[in-house]
Amino acid sequence: xxxxxxxxxxxxxxxxxxxxxxxxxxxxxxxxxxxxxxxxxxxxxxxxxxxxxxxxxxxxxxxxxxxxxxxxxxxxxxxxxxxxxxxxxxxxxxxxxxxxxxxxxxxxxxxxxxxxxxxxxxxxxxxxxxxxxxxxxxxxxxxxxxxxxxxxxxxxxxxxxxxxxxxxxxxxxxxxxxxxxxxxxxxxxxxxxxxxxxxxxxxxxxxxxxxxxxxxxxxxxxxxxxxxxxxxxxxxxxxxxxxxxxxxxxxxxxxxxxxxxxxxxxxxxxxxxxxxxxxxxxxxxxxxxxxxxxxxxxxxxxxxxxxxxxxxxxxxxxxxxxxxxxxxxxxxxxxxxxxxxxxxxxxxxxxxxxxxxxxxxxxxxxxxxxxxxxxxxxxxxxxxxxxxxxxxxxxxxxxxxxxxxxxxxxxxxxxxxxxxxxxxxxx
Length: 427
Prior knowledge:
The protein is of the alpha/beta class. It has 14 helices and 27 strands. The longest helix has 13 residues, at 189-201. The mean pLDDT is 96.
């Protein structure tokens, strides 16, 4: 039977028909962010034959699925804005993880796995591409009990290790909806200052891990005159296109695919998705490779750039909670922070504004709030950057790093932080 005949045979009339092959107590796993298949996920709520199933999602870009938890328990691996509320309302549970560990964690803790994913249209050889994704799903395809696809003509066809053959597929639907896009983020003056400061720490020939947000966007604005940069990251943001077009990126130091950038997922605008489509300079790899600290450690001149919510005076970074309540999750910050620490000539940079709430609250604090999560430990932290400068913490004593952090805090809080540090015996 030809691949086109197989396609017609496996194509369902509706999303509900496609998901109806899922049996009770089977675990359902979807890619993160743009790779999540919205039509198939929504249809789960209409599937009356489910009981004791679990749905594993990460950084979902859609509202929380309205479904009875006894029917489908939702497990998030990185909370989105809706899931923060749902977590405390006990509609969603949270699975702690380093991003790189997810393929193995899911292999160990799930059973009768059903993979549902949004994919690009099938090619003449019968292959679909996971497009913007590879993440933790690609390593689970081989042992999946069922694979159900949502074919979307707007999903870019990308290269790397993120392809599925029609022979592997149990059911599919077509749903040509627009892909989710990142919101436009206006840059504040503090973002521009931090962006310039971080860009000055980056040298020609460095390899970069950088993500999405106002500060990463500002940093990339100042990198267009750099040369021979390599992008080895977990997420591809929109601004990477600017770096390619300016000639800043050569990708000559990429350990997975020399001459191409590698990532495990992408989230941007249509401009990014069009750039990725059929572009062999973009290679998508599983997260247990892109975020493997042992592999990352072998990359010379690796610069990792991440954000945090608050930093205490010994350098502990809380990037997951506000006031002791969960806000997000670890993602790849731990993976790349550890890898950068072991990289020859590497730099691990963590950025944050010095204050929040209109300048009324310092984000450099004497101690983290009760119940806060420590995302990056004091032993792994390297550079902390605010709009008031750079604190190089690695290799510094408690008193040296305390003073360095006070020096980059907002001036309005430096006296108070100094007094607290003296009371704690840090100064």
